[in-house]
Write a structure and sequence with these properties.
This protein is α/β, with parallel strands linked by helices. The protein has six helices and seven strands; from the N terminus they run αββααβαβββαβα. α1 (about 1-20) packs antiparallel against α2 and α3 (about 65-75) packs parallel to α4. The longest helix is centred in the last third of the chain and has 24 residues, at about 140-165.
Length: about 200
């Protein structure tokens, strides 16, 4: 997911400077860890990509609210903002709505297919990337896999509804699928909606 986010960020950043737009970067976990103010040079985009690829998170967890609130404080004029995340967080709908009222917020969600369907690999130790909790699960048990898929489906359905209520553009991108055409189509649709 990190590689996908880096590819997406690089593509968006290069597109922005080709349009003579400024581009910045906020890296966050449970807190904002790194901020690169917007600029519009190729060297700036190279630094942005280097920072994105080499940054080592200092903490676990994800706080979309903190990141959006920080972005709102440092961005003084209305802007097009991209939130690239797996969205493993709760209680950030108010921050989405607030940010989207002042700015044009677009969410690009990185999804590992194993988050949607558990592969049958027998007994497995799995670690929650957000909390660090380690569990042993029997992935060979069909009931475990069905329960996992149902929970993943419910979570994604609730997330889509939350983003719809906040009127935020949302694109789901899986790590095992090509994304350039999907992104191009989605961004063209978003641009038409902004003009309308």
């Amino acid at each position: 997911k990190r590689e996908l986010a880096a590819e997406l960020a690089g593509t968006l950043a290069m597109s922005a400077i080709r349009n003579n737009d400024r581009v910045g970067l906020i890296l966050f976990t449970g807190e904002v860890e790194h901020y690169l103010p917007p600029r519009k040079t190729r060297q700036h985009v190279q630094r942005l990509l280097r920072d994105l690829l080499t940054h080592e998170p200092r903490s676990n967890g994800t706080s979309v609210s903190r990141a959006l609130e920080f972005a709102g404080r440092v961005t003084h004029r209305p802007a097009l903002m991209f939130l690239l995340s797996d969205l493993h967080d709760d209680s950030y709908e108010a921050a989405l709505k607030s940010t989207n009222q002042r700015h044009d917020l677009v969410v690009l969600q990185a999804i590992d297919p194993r988050e949607l369907a558990l592969p049958d690999v027998g007994l497995a130790l799995v670690q929650d990337a957000e909390t660090g909790e380690v569990l042993e699960i029997n992935t060979s048990d069909p009931e475990v896999r069905v329960a996992y898929e149902n929970a993943a489906h419910e979570r994604q359905t609730a997330l889509r509804e939350q983003l719809r209520r906040a009127r935020v553009g949302h694109l789901e991108l899986q790590t095992d699928r090509p994304w350039p055409n999907a992104l191009r189509t989605f961004l063209a649709l978003q641009a038409r909606r902004r003009v309308a």
